[in-house]
Design brief:
Blueprint: E1 5-8, E2 21-25, H1 26-32, E3 36-42, E4 45-53, E5 56-60, E6 63-67, E7 71-75, E8 81-85, E9 90-97, E10 111-114, H2 118-136, H3 142-168, H4 173-188, H5 195-202, H6 206-217, H7 221-239, H8 244-250, H9 256-267, H10 271-282, E11 291-292
Parallel strand pairs: 1-3
Antiparallel strand pairs: 1-11, 2-9, 3-8, 4-7, 4-9, 5-6, 5-8, 7-10
Helix pairs in contact: 2-3, 4-6, 5-6, 8-9
């Protein structure tokens, strides 16, 4: 299978024909593309995702991992990546030419980290908002302003990478456990639904695992397991024609009735109603994309 490679071809240009910097609303993009992006790469552009609402899964160079709200993901140019978003996800994706004249060296490998401090969240949102205002304006010096914003965003990323390196040296046992749990959940969400099963493999008690999950994410271990399983359920309802009973069975539910009750309790609509709604949205006229093959 050939992995598609895209180039960005609109907006202020750097050397060549790649935009210096542009941002797009994640909510707007997923509405026009069934809240997901198949595996692809951008040979001439870096991408910077700021997901401030919702959950999902990203696959980078063949390795899948989950993410929650307030997550930063940096994808260097040429990296194969694909996304699956919760339909209610929101935030920004910034696309930056790899030839942009920025004052710092960007990471050469993909980066993903949670942004936990409200002040940091507000700062990053403000940067993205300002880039969006600038790209929509007709003011003089627009290209220069966007080039400066690309530098500002790059410096912000590098500063936070330095914080992460320092923090990892003294990471707490609770955070280490949370990382192991999240990775295990990504691998086993379709077969393990019990907190006890995860706790046994991680060699801790269910009570301790739940306490660490609440401290790290604000949700219980059970809540995180259900969120991950139902995210996959929504993906299959939207992208396949499989019957609800088959999806329930594939995801390890003891019955289609229990799956339907849980799905309805968590989302406010039945699986069939969700499928009907998401397909109606996908049939609406699509917005213009910045991406061409």
């Amino acid at each position: 299978m050939t992995i598609p490679s895209f180039e960005y071809n609109s907006g202020p240009k750097s050397q060549g024909d790649t935009p210096v910097l542009c941002v797009d609303s994640i909510a707007g993009l997923i509405r026009s593309q069934k809240w997901g992006f198949d595996a692809h790469s951008h040979e001439n552009a870096h991408q910077f995702f700021w997901i401030n609402k919702g959950t999902g899964r990203v696959q980078i160079d063949g390795s899948p991992r989950g993410f929650g709200p307030n997550t930063v993901i940096f994808v260097p140019a040429g990296t194969v990546h694909g996304f699956e978003f919760n339909p209610s996800s929101a935030g920004w994706v910034a696309t930056m030419s790899k030839t942009s004249p920025i004052p710092v060296a960007l990471p050469q490998k993909p980066v993903q980290f949670p942004l936990l401090q409200r002040e940091d969240q507000a700062t990053l949102t403000a940067i993205c908002d300002e880039i969006n205002r600038e790209q929509l304006s007709d003011s003089s010096g627009k290209d220069l302003a966007l080039a400066c914003q690309a530098g500002l965003m790059s410096v912000w990323l590098v500063r936070h990478m330095e914080k992460i390196v320092g923090a990892d040296a003294a990471i707490s046992p609770g955070k280490k456990l949370m990382r192991r749990f999240v990775q295990m959940l990504e691998d086993k969400y379709a077969s393990l639904h019990s907190v006890a099963n995860y706790a046994e493999t991680l060699k801790v008690t269910p009570t301790h695992l739940t306490r660490v999950c609440r401290q790290s994410s604000g949700k219980s271990a059970t809540g995180l397991i259900q969120d991950r399983t139902l995210l996959e359920a929504r993906r299959r309802l939207a992208l396949t024609d499989h019957k609800v009973s088959r999806i329930a069975d594939d995801l390890g539910f003891r019955s289609a009735a229990y799956f339907t009750r849980l799905f309805t309790q968590k989302t406010g609509e039945t699986p069939s109603a969700f499928r009907k709604k998401i397909r109606q949205v996908s049939m609406q006229p699509q917005v213009n994309s910045r991406v061409t093959q």
